[in-house]
Automatic annotation (TrEMBL):
<comment type="similarity">
    <text>Belongs to the D-isomer specific 2-hydroxyacid dehydrogenase family.</text>
</comment>
<dbReference type="InterPro" id="IPR006140">
    <property type="entry name" value="D-isomer_DH_NAD-bd"/>
</dbReference>
<dbReference type="Pfam" id="PF02826">
    <property type="entry name" value="2-Hacid_dh_C"/>
</dbReference>
<feature type="domain" description="D-isomer specific 2-hydroxyacid dehydrogenase catalytic">
    <location>
        <begin position="25"/>
        <end position="314"/>
    </location>
</feature>
<dbReference type="InterPro" id="IPR036291">
    <property type="entry name" value="NAD(P)-bd_dom_sf"/>
</dbReference>
<feature type="domain" description="D-isomer specific 2-hydroxyacid dehydrogenase NAD-binding">
    <location>
        <begin position="112"/>
        <end position="283"/>
    </location>
</feature>
<dbReference type="InterPro" id="IPR006139">
    <property type="entry name" value="D-isomer_2_OHA_DH_cat_dom"/>
</dbReference>
<keyword id="KW-0560">Oxidoreductase</keyword>
<dbReference type="Pfam" id="PF00389">
    <property type="entry name" value="2-Hacid_dh"/>
</dbReference>
<keyword id="KW-0520">NAD</keyword>
<protein>
    <submittedName>
        <fullName>2-hydroxyacid dehydrogenase</fullName>
    </submittedName>
</protein>
<dbReference type="InterPro" id="IPR050223">
    <property type="entry name" value="D-isomer_2-hydroxyacid_DH"/>
</dbReference>
Length: 319
């Protein structure tokens, strides 16, 4: 008999959907009207042994408590800050994620956002579309990356991939995280120091309570009116109200953001600012990476139900 799994979120590539439908009895919460979801979960919960979810959606304690036979949560993503480990660990529920397979595409997007902001690509696109070039309206010049300093917040897999790319643009690299990384890049003494020493601050750290609002008003002021913030990590890492105020008041030069505090709701103030580049949390949104992520998440489910070691197990809160 095929194990029953609950799918939270949607948008899996067809190849992954085909594997899930073949190997499991799939209960898809996203296919149910919001008003009917509570009753739907009540009906399917007794048989659910696995959850297939996204890094943003995760699983909270309330839902986990309603799944008495839950054995494994397979996260389609690298971030697990939305997973309620405190509720899962005491029950021995396993958690997996999909590291490595999304590193390169997320790093590519970070550099794309940095370039879009520094070279003012969205503004130039609007300039041409509006006929302003033909009308010979003046343009604000862009900024070169050569000789500038890129400060990386969190020098993990993605942070290192971003740093490697930016070095090829002739940028100097600095970083900050709580531990010292095994690398040749200089480590700043503190996060405000990194911001002060950087022209571009790229946020690559994991989400969670330990990093919540770590990019605060002090950090933004240290980055300064010529500085640019790039965030491809989690919206929770940035004090969004402080960011908006710094941009509006000219205390920060620009921002390029793929993630937000309350997705998919993006504050109107950010959408109205001309010195902000916005994308809808698409760092891993390529056919190749989403396929690899989905197949790795599915491989973790397959290994678990076959009694084999998990390819990419995440240690819980108690580990």
């Amino acid at each position: 008999m095929r194990p029953e799994i609950l799918l939270l979120g949607s948008g899996w590539v067809p190849q992954v959907d085909k594997v899930l439908e073949r190997d499991y009895v799939c209960h898809r919460l996203a296919a149910v009207a919001p008003a009917d979801r509570d009753a739907f979960i009540e009906r399917v919960a007794p048989g659910v042994r696995g959850v297939f979810t996204t890094g943003v959606t995760g699983i909270d304690a309330a839902l986990a408590d309603r799944l008495p036979k839950l054995e494994i949560v397979a996260v389609h993503g690298v971030g697990v800050d939305a997973v309620a480990f405190d509720a899962l660990d005491p029950r021995g529920i396993l958690v997996t994620n999909t590291p490595d397979v999304l590193t390169e595409d997320v790093a590519d997007l970070a550099v794309s956002l940095l370039l879009a902001s520094s070279r003012r690509i969205p503004q130039l696109d609007r300039h041409v579309r509006a006929g302003d070039w033909e009308a010979k309206k003046p343009l604000q010049p862009a900024r070169s990356l050569r000789g500038k300093v890129a400060g990386i917040v969190g020098l993990g897999r993605i942070g290192r991939a971003v740093a490697t790319r930016l070095e090829s643009f002739g940028m100097a690299i600095r970083y900050f995280q709580r531990s010292t990384a095994d690398c040749l890049y200089p480590r700043s003494a503190s996060l405000p120091d990194l911001a002060r020493e950087s022209d571009y601050l790229i946020v690559c750290a994991p989400g969670g309570a330990a990093t919540r609002a770590m990019i605060d008003a002090d950090v933004l002021d240290a980055l300064g009116p010529e500085g640019t913030l790039v965030n491809i990590a989690r919206g929770s890492l940035v004090d969004e109200a402080a960011l908006i105020a710094a941009l509006q008041e000219g205390r920060l030069g620009a921002a390029a953001l793929d993630v937000f505090a309350d997705e998919p709701r993006v504050p109107a103030a950010l959408r109205e600012l001309d010195n902000v580049v916005l994308t809808p949390h698409v760092g891993s949104f390529t056919v190749e990476t989403r396929t690899a992520m989905g197949m790795l998440a599915a491989a973790n489910l397959e290994a678990h139900f076959a009694g084999k070691p998990l390819p990419t197990r995440v240690l819980g809160a108690s580990a």
